[in-house]
Write a structure and sequence with these properties.
By secondary structure, this protein is mostly helical. Helix content is about 60%, strand content about 5%. It starts with a helix and ends with a helix. This is Membrane associated serine protease, rhomboid family. Its main location: membrane.
């Protein structure tokens, strides 16, 4: 079963769309963190140790500039990190429902750049709100894909407001109504202090979704810098994994076996310059030493042919030499 699941995941990363890949990464990180939490509690008398809080701090963003200065990677990791199952579930459902529409209509290549851009916008809203208002009196951290997801939800709702969505019991509803109520719920949440940091993060993603569509309709893609950065990282990784020219095979494998019963040349070889005409046109030329030499023993002729194969390749042999080699390989 585990092998089958792993094969499905690998297949999805090979040919699947970006929405599914993002969901897989979020779920994988949640599962890993959950297993770590369970193990730490088991080995700590069923109490959550301080080490777990340290791990969360290494994944989450904070309004504290010192936290961000020494943990800059959290700008990226926080939007793929969840603790609570239902936090993960609702974010991924929203991403699946609305992100598939976004990828189909605006291109799969824009999904990850906008996801990251929305997540960064959500963090910026949270960071500024906590540092420019009275919200930042105590320490706080933020994590989750909500800002990134709300950015995509808002963007597709504005781009194709009349796109039909078929819901259970309710029937067909146009996309704009679903997006409107999702945004309106976040505005109402600003009136409470319950998860105020998360709500501000959502608002930041919503604003970025508006701006993305506004500028896209005017010919400017706000996700292009992030997309270029992702392309650079991808190309850099591919170049890093590419073998050096010294280790690359130039013309394919070649093998000649003296002790065996066969000699095989598996790659052709470019004709040397002395075999070309003065006008630059290559031609085959039978040379006197192409055929087995008279007066030589059978073994000497075989050795000479094998040396020629080693120096010039199997295709340099004449028909007589190939026939001689074929007969020699069939002798017992």
């Amino acid at each position: 079963m585990l092998q089958s699941i792993w094969d499905d995941v690998r297949n999805e990363f090979s040919i699947g769309n970006m929405i599914n890949k993002i969901i897989i990464v979020n779920v994988a990180i949640w599962m890993t963190i959950s297993i770590v939490w369970v193990l730490l509690r088991i080995f700590n008398g069923m109490e959550t140790p301080a080490l777990y809080g340290t791990i969360v701090d290494m994944m989450a963003v904070s309004h504290d500039w010192k936290h961000m200065l020494f943990r800059p990677w959290t700008l990226l990791t926080h939007m793929f990190f969840h603790e609570a199952f239902f936090h993960l579930l609702w974010n991924m459902l929203y991403l699946f429902w609305f992100g598939r529409i976004f990828g189909d209509l605006l291109g799969d290549h824009r999904v990850l750049p906008l996801y990251i851009t929305g997540g960064l916008a959500g963090f910026a809203a949270y960071f500024l709100a906590y540092n420019l208002t009275g919200l930042g009196a105590g320490p706080s951290i933020a994590y989750g894909a909500s800002g990134a997801v709300f950015c995509i939800v808002t963007a597709i709702g504005i781009y194709v407001p009349d796109y039909p969505i078929r819901l259970f019991i309710l029937g067909t509803i146009r996309l704009k109504y679903l997006v409107f109520f999702a945004i309106f719920a976040q505005i109402l949440a600003l009136g409470t202090m319950d998860n105020i940091g998360g709500t501000i993060d959502h608002i930041g993603g919503i604003i970025m979704g508006f701006l993305f569509v506004f500028y896209l309709k005017r010919g400017s893609d706000l996700t292009k810098p992030v997309g270029n950065a992702l392309n650079w990282v991808t190309k850099s990784w591919q170049n890093l994994m590419k073998p050096s020219p010294d280790h690359q095979q130039r013309s394919g494998p070649r093998a000649a076996y003296r002790a065996g019963k066969s000699v095989k040349e598996t790659a052709t070889k470019t004709r040397p310059s002395f075999m070309r005409k003065a006008g630059g046109k290559a031609r085959d030329r039978q040379q006197d030493d192409n055929s087995p030499r008279a007066g030589m023993s059978h073994q000497e002729q075989l050795d000479a042919i094998l040396d020629k194969i080693k120096d010039k390749g199997y295709n340099s042999l004449s028909k007589e030499e190939k026939d001689f080699l074929f007969r020699a390989s069939n002798q017992k």
